[in-house]
Amino acid sequence: MATQQNDPEMAVTDALIEETTSDHIQVIQTVIASLDADNSAMVSQTPANGHLWKFKYGKAEVFVQLTGLSDDDTLTVWSMVLKLPAKNEDKLMRQLLEMNWSSTFEARFGIIDNQVVVVSTRTLAELSPGEISRLLTVVATIANDHEEALQSEFAA
């Protein structure tokens, strides 16, 4: 029986995973460039927080954080859609929960710092360029599609 170290298929798979992981930053920047029609993208890099990008997609301001490049690090994408407190918060919460079930794909609505956000997060383990593209696109699209309607109905 061959061990994992002697298995050529596993060596190729490991090499592809390592190559994909090292390319995450490039993929994120490429996806942001394709979504950012206003050329508003900015990036910040710190040892404590990794990489943080901000860009506009339509009316939505989208943030992308990559905490590092190991399998245990995370890619988080979020966009604020409504400040709290809001009018008729019971109705708002029910509507957000219903949308979480039916129309947010890999993203979800949540609350952070008294703001309703659309957010998606994923560890880097086996994360493909297609998944990176989808996470950024899903969050940006949902935020852009719902921000105006949620603010017009619920903004205090």
Can you offer a commentary on this structure?
There is one protein chain. Strand 3 and strand 4 form a beta hairpin. The chain has a 6-stranded antiparallel beta sheet with strand order 1-2-3-4-6-5. The longest helix has 26 residues, at 129-154. The termini are far apart. The protein is built from 4 helices and 6 strands. The radius of gyration is 18 Å and the shape is globular. The protein is 43% helix and 28% strand. The chain has 156 residues and is an alpha+beta fold.
From the structure above, extract its key features:
43% helix; 156 residues; alpha+beta; single chain
Q: What are the SSEs and their pairings?
A:
Blueprint lengths: L7 H15 L1 H12 L6 E5 L3 E8 L2 E7 L7 E10 L5 H14 L5 E5 L2 E9 L5 H26 L2
Antiparallel strand pairs: 1-2, 2-3, 3-4, 4-6, 5-6
Helix pairs in contact: 2-4
Total number of strands: 6
Helix count from the secondary structure assignment: 4
Mean pLDDT: 88
Task: Tell me the span between the first and last alpha carbons.
Answer: 67 Å
Strand content: 25-35%
Q: What's the order of the H and E elements?
A: HHEEEEHEEH
- Low-confidence segments, given as residue ranges, are 1-5, 10-18
The geometry reads as: globular
Helix content: 40-55%
Q: Biggest sheet: strands side by side, in what order?
A: 1-2-3-4-6-5
Largest sheet: 6 strands, antiparallel
- Tell me the radius of gyration: 18 Å
Assign the structural class, choosing from mainly alpha, mainly beta, alpha/beta, alpha+beta, or little secondary structure: alpha+beta
